Amino acid sequence: xxxxxxxxxxxxxxxxxxxxxxxxxxxxxxxxxxxxxxxxxxxxxxxxxxxxxxxxxxxxxxxxxxxxxxxxxxxxxxxxxxxxxxxxxxxxxxxxxxxxxxxxxxxxxxxxxxxxxxxxxxxxxxxxxxxxxxxxxxxxxxxxxxxxxxxxxxxxxxxxxxxxxxxxxxxxxxxxxxxxxxxxxxxxxxxxxxxxxxxxxxxxxxxxxxxxxxxxxxxxxxxxxxxxxxxxxxxxxxxxxxxxxxxxxxxxxxxxxxxxxxxxxxxxxxxxxxxxxxxxxxxxxx
Amino acid sequence: xxxxxxxxxxxxxxxxxxxxxxxxxxxxxxxxxxxxxxxxxxxxxxxxxxxxxxxxxxxxxxxxxxxxxxxxxxxxxxxxxxxxxxxxxxxxxxxxxxxxxxxxxxxxxxxxxxxxxxxxxxxxxxxxxxxxxxxxxxxxxxxxxxxxxxxxxxxxxxxxxxxxxxxxxxxxxxxxxxxxxxxxxxxxxxxxxxxxxxxxxxxxxxxxxxxxxxxxxxxxxxxxxxxxxxxxxxxxxxxxxxxxxxxxxxxxxxxxxxxxxxxxxxxxxxxxxxxxxxxxxxxxxxxxxxxxxxxxxxxx
Lengths: 286, 300
Description:
The structure holds two protein chains of two kinds.
Chain A: H1 2-40, H2 44-49, H3 61-67, H4 75-106, H5 112-123, H6 128-140, H7 148-155, H8 160-171, H9 175-183, H10 188-199, H11 201-217, H12 220-225, H13 234-243, H14 250-282
Chain B: H1 10-38, E1 41-42, E2 50-51, H2 55-62, H3 65-96, H4 103-116, H5 120-129, H6 135-142, H7 157-167, H8 170-182, H9 185-193, H10 198-226, H11 230-235, H12 249-259, H13 263-291
Antiparallel strand pairs in B: 1-2
Helix pairs in contact in B: 3-7, 3-8, 3-10, 4-8, 8-10, 10-13, 12-13
């Protein structure tokens, strides 16, 4: 009896230690984020002087100033621009990647093998080898300083990773379902629309969320293609603060940083299981 | 055979594939070949490219000190940040790999920095924390160590970026955790029967069984690290300083191409990057034969 209780208490103790270690590590890991949130509520003179997260007095003026935007442009404009770009990319990836994935996963055609191999190879390709000619093309077409160079490629399934993700998912769908559709006289188009696409919802949702978050965070593409401050997305607007190194601009900069992270945090809480499963099963990477 | 009648109409397959084919031709293969051509030219975006042969490559490798600095910075960044990130990922995956109702919650929480870390906002936080007046500098100063600000000290600035990369160990950690769950429990039972301790079990069971996943993460993270851009741009104000100590290869490519409009030179840099990534990946796969263990039952 006593050995049993001893074993139980030692198990309980070990579990408590495990929780403590996990929570301790998490606290250290998330400290920078907590620090950012704390700073965004602090007055300017307190920001540099204190190491603690909690402000002595909470002020909202940083946010008030952040909401005024910069260079005479409202923050809502930057926000709207980011939403347009991210929304367009999500729509493009969902449409083009699911179409291509269906062909690779469910249809037979002579070049399927080599084209699929090529598609996989492009996942590993550094974007920089396409960057300059793509820029030249869009520049010649007069499309620099519009959202088209950021969105249009997604409608042409250039994010091969998501094609791969959806292919993997569609291949896992039971064969009898598409067979049943076929026996009912469905052609490939109807089978895609009414059977395969609805069943692929988890893969499509994963694609949509990751596309949104990546586009929301993306910096290089937006930096290259958008020059007019009226077209700036949130990351570009945030960068404006980088040039103003005076300490008085720290507060609004942190407030705006928090605001740009809010959609990602919301998506994270809403879809954390799908996100983590997406990473675990396909090796998607941030 | 007749069951697959509908699938045998290739025209429909190519119809489904047409957006992807257009993208592959117009945005991937075409631009790749174009940038290969441009890499042998002088091109400023506004005049016709002028053929210069291998001159861009020659200047890069023999005359351009900033180029060589950027190669050196990037190699150090890749070689330091990737192993540290994978070690942190494996460590936390081992820690989390036990039956618990809250394991999923912990896994999500540790993963969160991977989603946030590539943003400009978090790079700005890093910049502020390691600034001359930042938290880290003040802590060190309180201990009597003066560093002159991590982001402004050429010997420390790269460490700031390495720490930011390691902070995002969540994605490989999730992949490691999935790999750990695939290891058959019988192997651990057998190891326990043999009287093996924790370390022995780790060396003889966990590591070999996990080695394909380690290879996967290593390749992915290495390719990723070579292309890192945003943190260096934000932390160094787009300059790669101090004294080019954070001049990532991609940042220098960006400066050459898009602030100096030397697009031929930048194209040559892009192709060299592709070549280096290809060689490094091939080398990793080569060495993989020595340390990656594929068991018969687990083809993954």
